[in-house]
Amino acid sequence: MAFQTIIPSESGYYGEYGGMFIPEILRTTFDELIVAFNEAKADPEFWQGFVDVMRNYSCRPTPITPLDNFANSLDGNFKVFCKREDLNHTGAHKANNVIGQGLLVQRMGKKRVIAETGAGQHGVATATMAARMGLECTIYMGSVDVERQRPNVFWMEQLGAEVVSVTDGTATLKDAINAAMRDWAESMETTHYVLGTTCGPHPFPEMVAWFQSIIGKEARQQMLDSTGKLPDLIYACVGGGSNASGIFLPFLDDESVELVGVEAGGRGVDTGSHAARFYGGNVGIAQGYKTYFFQDEEGQMLHTHSIAAGLDYIGVSPILSHLHDEKRIRFTATADDAVISATKHLIRTEGIIPALESSHAFASVIEEASHIPEGSQVLINLSGRGDKDIFNIAEAIGDKKWEEFLRQKASSNQ
Amino acid sequence: MQLTEYLRKRLETRKILLMTHAVVGYPSLEDNWAMLEAMGEADVDVVELQMPFSEPTADGPLFVKANQEALRNGTKLQDYFKLMQRASESFEFPVLMMGYCNTAFTMGFQVFCENVSRHGGKGFIIPDLPFEECGQLFDHSLEFGLDPIMLCTPTNKEERLRKICSHGRGFIYCVARKGVTGESTVLEQSTEDFLLQCRQFTDLPLALGFGLSKPEELHMLQGKAEIAIVGTALLKTWENDGESAFKRHLNSLADARA
Predict the structure, then answer these.
(1) β-strand partners of A377
(2) What CATH number is given for A13-55+93-204 in this structure?
(3) Quick check: pTM over 0.90?
(4) Which residues of A touch chain B, with CB atoms under 8 Å apart?
(5) Is B48 annotated as catalytic?
(6) What residue ranges of chain A are covered by domains with CATH 3.40.50.1100?
(7) Is A94 a catalytic residue?
(8) For residue A397, what pLDDT band results from cuts at 50, 70 and 90?
């Protein structure tokens, strides 16, 4: 299998997934975006400019950190490394995509950006980029997520973005995407839609994966430089699939490297209350593209659940769906409670506070530890830091002192 | 009678035709029936019945809510097709399926066409299915005598309008402006120019939709388009002022066809 050719077909397909199921009103805008992206992609100076900005503004290249304590605490004999996307500006891999698209927006000469956000990370990253690049910015966020992620809403507004709370549907990420699409259908002349993940209509999956591939390109070289060989296994959490695509794609042709995508198992994949599309989903067409969706037998999307807002999404990257079917990536799912305990475990053993999304990948390594061959090198993508999750983690852990603090804070503000 | 032929026949006695819309299951199936009876009494020319979808990306706020509530009310495909059959048996106007691609894809394109046809539908309008993706669905629609209604928009380039028109049957649905359904549209010179542009690429009747609400607009459109589409505005009247206001609104539009 040659994966060097993970380039979509002209109509934006990866195998049978992807495509452009868009209303005609947006066609010209998409056509223009495809041209602008292809020109940028063919221009080595554009990529170099992107790398330079990421170095000066977002701490790239992010390091690879050996996690010996974490590895030694597990039921196995292997080495663990993590790619520190948590050290990016704004605290997650989201910055890679957002800065990349921002540079593209400048190239296209548009003055306003819009974006959807789930956990709020992509929204904060977009608002940050807009502030830096002098663009107007509107962020769409489901009202349920606004409640869950108030600190991020606060920062987006401080950064000058307008945050629109979306109450349609399930009032989560998918509804924020629909709302952003509707905005774009009216504003496309002046506005670019900074889609946050490797989903949606072509060329978004390809474009977001291209910017995020900076993760895997760096990681591959860093592993070779520091250990003299490639990792044997790579784990990444999978919501829409952008951090996973970013770290996986540059390793696709290294056949010895096993790639493991970890979906949100929620309350358990047999409870129906989760967001594991490769377990409970099937192929459908929505939000502009064809992929595995979490939907009922009549094609209506179902409620997803995850403790991590950033994984709580109905669809998954068409690139990953294709690689799932081709069996190049193995997918697994990890439940909320295992994620909380993995979070605590990583904090205590390594002094690293992971985002709940990223903790899924660590939880999966803990679960699979006894099956990982002796002497293996395991690379985990630490896609983001956990500061944003302080309310959710404290609540899940049931920290009494934190609860007391919240009560006091609330009453002192009255 | 084929759809185009039916429309032309009607245009012999009317200067413009009226197409109306209902979201099946909203506010309820009973209300849908009352709307359809009113449409029958007003002798509306074509009716699109929308199958609700959880991700109605091309719809504006009122229809988004309607889709959502219809699903919350438990509307299933079975209810949809039952209503379609009852309507097509009871009224003179042809009924078109309107909905999103996933409904057809999940059923399977052949089963979908078979169902629309068996329940009396004459064609379908699927706003998130561009012609590049229509291949199989088109083949089956031919097989079952259904007309795929294609959408042209003012942002499309000329070459694309040509292609869209070449794939359409029945009539061409011209979107009056940017954005989603249900916001007001001012009929400007640019709308007229756009209709003229579409006219170059097709002999099919042209329907204009997105934001129409008043009889005066139908008068203005006479001679420029063959069909006026009124959706959101009528639902708004039903919601705000009730059934009898809906009938008055509908009749005022129907009267504006002469």
Answers:
(1) A79
(2) 3.40.50.1100
(3) yes
(4) 11, 19-29, 31, 168-169, 174, 178, 181-182, 185-186, 188, 284-288, 290, 295, 297-301
(5) yes
(6) 13-55+93-204, 59-91+213-397
(7) yes
(8) confident
